[in-house]
């Protein structure tokens, strides 16, 4: 890297800039580097094509545009002209100091597969780069563009984008001081779901060596469900379900049709819904993802990948406290909700025994959080260990202090701690202002654990064993437990997490 922070990639040189968050000026960030061709024209709804080369030095001091994204998610911003199909870009944080090749961490953002960007402030990689990593964050196609069923085109285009980004890392990261032979993929929520899919995907095999998955959602769709969703979207948009007709539509037209399908208000939409907040998720049954990831991992498909996985202890409070309307008229009504999630009789009573002082709303939150994130995350760790692989498990239990503490250890609260970004807007809100010494200490320990895991595969506590789930509990004062602490796990034993 020269004095102008120019790095020569396979497609041409790129100019970066010193990260504004760098404490000593040694961390440089290159933003908006294309890793694949923009999915316009013949590339719309197609697998990612190689990025074209360019002449001269490409300015990569500003982030590229996020993928087109809609409004049907709590806390999501509406589509704006700042988004673009020209979104297949990534960002790299690296050190100006020469030395041995550094471990690489590739971040895949969350957002229910319909919103988000790798350039969000929460995901700034400066602190992790200061800890000795080269950090890459990736944009990929979202919603219908990335996961909608289009006849004759691959279903999981968003996953194929991520695999293309990993091939770019393999071919180019050495120029930034990274080791292409020591790559960790990491993600949270839909990003964690993507990580799990990549572990099971033939297209990504050999492109990474370790995986970090925070709050893994179990949302996967069958081909039939994905087709039904797309039929509803196409009808709401007023076009036939065919690639040429859909490609003639502007992204915002498809986004509006998706919103109609989610709300059930679109003519002929049929109110198609999945068990998630959105009607898009990875599609199981095609060449990109031939087998459900949990089943593939259970039979050893990723036994050579070291896994770090876990969840927050009050995941679902983010949604019930920040917008989702919850009205439960008695425990009988809550039992109906539990039954729809696959739980048997007595489930509400069992949760009540564990949380005797909880309100019905709080019990609903516990059950929904387990259904959406917690159970899948635990099963993933257990499956990896049983298959002969290595898995380290954690729970994040630090409590948010905003809104009089009602959010608890909610979904996404762990992210600013793991990235070391306690001054980002998300952290300032959830910490209720300036983080205190306890919060800062927790963040330092989590940054250290992520960095150690990316470097060596050991985050600092024992791996899960086939006969015992060893759990690191992240909190103001951390702890380590052996055995599953949740008295309600048995309720979920017979609940299927197969794609729907």
From TrEMBL:
<dbReference type="GO" id="GO:0016787">
    <property type="term" value="F:hydrolase activity"/>
</dbReference>
<feature type="domain" description="Carboxylesterase type B">
    <location>
        <begin position="5"/>
        <end position="460"/>
    </location>
</feature>
<protein>
    <recommendedName>
        <fullName>Carboxylic ester hydrolase</fullName>
        <ecNumber>3.1.1.-</ecNumber>
    </recommendedName>
</protein>
<dbReference type="InterPro" id="IPR002018">
    <property type="entry name" value="CarbesteraseB"/>
</dbReference>
<dbReference type="Pfam" id="PF00135">
    <property type="entry name" value="COesterase"/>
</dbReference>
<dbReference type="InterPro" id="IPR019826">
    <property type="entry name" value="Carboxylesterase_B_AS"/>
</dbReference>
<comment type="similarity">
    <text>Belongs to the type-B carboxylesterase/lipase family.</text>
</comment>
<keyword id="KW-0378">Hydrolase</keyword>
<dbReference type="InterPro" id="IPR029058">
    <property type="entry name" value="AB_hydrolase_fold"/>
</dbReference>
<dbReference type="InterPro" id="IPR050309">
    <property type="entry name" value="Type-B_Carboxylest/Lipase"/>
</dbReference>
